[in-house]
Amino acid sequence: MSETTLLRALKVVDEISRHPEGLGFSAIRIFLGNPSPTTVNKILKELLGMDVLQKTSGKTYVLGTRAYFWGKAAARSNDPMRVVRAHMRGLHEEFQASVNLFTCSQGSLFCLESFVAPHSPSMWSAGQSLALSLPVVGSVFFHDPVQLRDEGFLQQELAAHREEISLDDVKNMIREALQTRIQDDGGLFYPGMRRFAVPIREQERTVLVLGLGVLEARLNRSEIRDRIVSGMVEARESIEQRFNHQYPEKD
Question: What are phi and psi of 56, to 5 degrees?
Answer without folding.
Answer: -85, 170
